[in-house]
């Protein structure tokens, strides 16, 4: 008998076929109120879940007594109560490697767009305001040769360092829980305390996961250490930053600008003060959002789920303690 699987993220036809060869699949088309009701109704029969961008807390998963595996189409796992899942021996998998390069590309897109004021100046052209050669009032700031500071040296941080070092001749500073000798050797990267990195770097990039330890890591005290010409980039999670402190720092020009792909609450409200500031480039959590990478992530998630439901160890198991193989 095929096991029941509930999807709350649509798959391509090829991946849907792959999954349906082995499972009975219920697709929740959207995560609006109606979709969430359908999800709740489907949970009692579910052996597997696949999706992303939805907090699956204990209250919801208590409705799924047969659940064996959750395959997240994401590298971040802050939407899951890992202790709860482990206690229930529910295998949680994610999709780490396939999105690394694309997400690092997004990080550099924000570095360049923010430093060179691309969005602001492109909008000026589009709105018919380009009447003469631009002058100092519209100049941006260079990226090449500037100091790149990376907070969180995991796969994405390393890919960002690669781009900065080899692509733009940037000295690389990093802060992480542990020293990374291979990164230091490969990119001539130098370890710094968080405080020292904030004081020294021209570009300060967050590439670390949201955990109980990192939530609110960058607040008023940290923004006060940054230099007025520094640029803040966040491609990790919005809640790593005290957003009110960020707005205050930008508003009082304690930092030059910010490139943000993630926010405390998503989607970002249209009336957010961040959107009133010309020195903010805000993008809609598009870090991994290319056709190629999202298909690769979904493929990875499907294979993780099929492995788990077949009693095999998924390739990208987040909570190996839950594995009873
Ligand atoms: C998207 C991400 O949230 O992978 C993550 O953790 O933040 C992004 O890739 C995810 O891909 C949603 O499908």
Find the CATH superfamily of the largest domain: NAD(P)-binding Rossmann-like Domain
Architecture per CATH nomenclature, i.e. the level-2 architecture of the largest domain: 3-Layer(aba) Sandwich
Secondary structure tally, helices: 12
- Spatially, the strands of the biggest sheet line up as 8-7-6-9-10-11-12
Task: Identify low-pLDDT runs.
Answer: none
Biggest β-sheet, characterized?
Answer: 7 strands, parallel
Per DSSP E runs of 2 or more residues, the count of β-strands stands at 12
Distance between the termini: 21 Å
What is the averaged pLDDT score? 97
Rg over alpha carbons? 22 Å
- One letter per element, helices H and strands E, the order comes to EHEHEHEHEHHEHEHEHEHEHEEH
CATH class of the largest domain: Alpha Beta
For this structure, the CATH topology of the largest domain is Rossmann fold
Shape: globular
Structural class estimated from helices and strands: alpha/beta
Distinct bound molecules: 2-keto-D-gluconic acid
Task: Summarize the topology.
Layout: E1 3-7, H1 13-20, E2 23-27, H2 33-42, E3 48-51, H3 58-61, E4 69-72, H4 82-87, E5 91-93, H5 100-115, H6 118-126, E6 148-151, H7 155-168, E7 172-175, H8 181-187, E8 190-191, H9 194-200, E9 203-206, H10 220-225, E10 231-234, H11 243-251, E11 257-260, E12 280-282, H12 291-309
Parallel strand pairs: 1-2, 1-3, 3-4, 4-5, 6-7, 6-9, 7-8, 9-10, 10-11, 11-12
Helix pairs in contact: 5-7
Bound molecules: 2-keto-D-gluconic acid.
2-keto-D-gluconic acid binds at residues 52-53, 73-76, 99, 285, 287-288, 297.
